[in-house]
Amino acid sequence: MDINKLVRKNVQQLTPYQSARRIGGQGDVWLNANEYPVAPHFDLTDQTLNRYPEPQPEKVIQRYAQYAGVKTEQVLVSRGADEAIELLMRAFCEPEKDSILYCPPTYGMYQVSAETLGIKTKTVPTTSDWQLDLEGIKQNIDTVKLIYVCSPNNPTGNLIDSDDIKALLNIAKDRALVIIDEAYIEFSPESSVVSWLNDYPHLVILRTLSKAFALAGLRCGFTIANEPVIEALQKVIAPYPLATPVADIAAQALSIDGVNTMKLHVVNLNNQKEKFANLLRQCPIVEKVYPSYSNYLCVKFQHDKDVFNILWRQGIILRDQSRSIGQQNIIRITIGTQADCEAVISALKTIK
After folding, report:
1. pTM above 0.85, yes or no
2. Angle between helices 80-92 and 109-117 (to 10 degrees)
3. What is d(CA 179, CA 332) in angstroms, rounded to the nearest whole number?
4. For the CA atoms of 63, 68, 73, 79, what is the dihedral angle to 10 degrees?
5. How many Cα atoms sit within 13 Å of 208 on the Cβ side?
């Protein structure tokens, strides 16, 4: 029996999202997944593993709402922000009829999730300085129900201009939801748009514990939106999205002590990022280190240097972004420990 004949036609054509772990590699310095470089320690306090967990863990919701400065009714917790990306499509888009719109170069899961669900996609590339092409979006908004914007943007690391986001919200009024993906917002908290929720009923914000909270392995993300959006998502989310140990650790991470620890980590990592960026700029083979408001740097190297593969063979695993950004020799480098960053600099100095 040919099982492939039973697979949906659109799925037959899909290429799985090329996550850092899927791409793999062998080495000791892993700077390809925008993870926090040091593992935190938590002890499980909830041992009721014989029972199903809460559909929306009350303590997690309360603590995240307090942290984000919103009402509990404006928060939904999910299996990472990736699940939230898909939940929005499932709740608001009719397959083969409605579209999502996103602005490459940006996070690849917007496209993958839409294609998996049979939802059409529209792309309006960013401008040369990686900002929104508002006129291009305006011309392509027909049939669009969801507009995804990542700020700080992955992989470029830049912030999207706040005035442009407001202009986008006005363009999309009464037509589409505007989803601002703030996975990296803790590294530039003053740039969050959460305070705009009262003024824009169609604004949605995505957050995660994977980055600044150092809990990528936990798979815990959040949707922040006005109540009608949250109510719609409640209708399509799985009955028990967070396992009991996940909710237990998430609640601890969102305690007052946990949030303060995260903020200290952010200060230290931002300092490390600045030092690393300065060292990179001193390397002859580096053409440009782009400004970053995240926990990674986007770096352009000389065109005739095979930096990615040379470092890969030395066990330093970075993320090649040449294809997604459309320019050769652009690599995204996660900010690691001081030893990790020194290993990268030492390896780059050997390339002539």
Report:
1. yes
2. 40
3. 24
4. -70
5. 26
Supply the DSSP string of 31-53, one letter for each residue.
-SS---SS----------TTSPP
Average pLDDT of 286-311? Answer: 94
- Report pLDDT digits (tens) over 155-180: 999 999 999 999 999 999 999 999 99
CA distance 138 to 277: 36
Number of CB atoms found within 10 A of residue 336's CB: 24
Torsion 34-36-41-43 (CA) sign: negative
* Token pair 């979006």: residue: 137
Q: What is the distance of C-alpha 7 from the center of its chain?
A: 29
CA angle centred on 66, ends 65 and 70, rounded to 5°? 50
Within a 10 A sphere around the Cβ of 306, how many other Cβ atoms? 12
- Interhelix angle 227-234/80-92, nearest 10 degrees: 90
Residue 23 CA, chain-centre distance (Å), reads 18
7-21 in b/e burial notation, b at 16+ Cβ within 10 A? eeeeeeeeeeeeebe
Q: Say how far apart CA 293 and CA 158 lie, in whole Å.
A: 6
**E strand residue ranges, the chain:** 29-30, 75-78, 99-102, 120-123, 144-150, 177-181, 203-208, 221-225, 286-289, 296-301, 316-317, 319-320, 330-334
Residues 6+ apart with CB under 8 A from 229: 177, 204, 223
1-23 residue pLDDT tens: 887 778 887 887 777 766 666 67
Burial class of residue 193 (count of CB atoms within 10 Å of its CB; 0-12, 13-18, 19+): buried
Both structure tokens of 250 = 């998430």
Residue 233 structure tokens: 């998502």
Peptide bond into 155 cis (omega under 30): yes
Under DSSP, is residue 324 helix (H, G, I), strand (E, B) or coil?
helix
Instruction: Judge contact between 241 and 79, C-beta under 8 A.
Output: yes
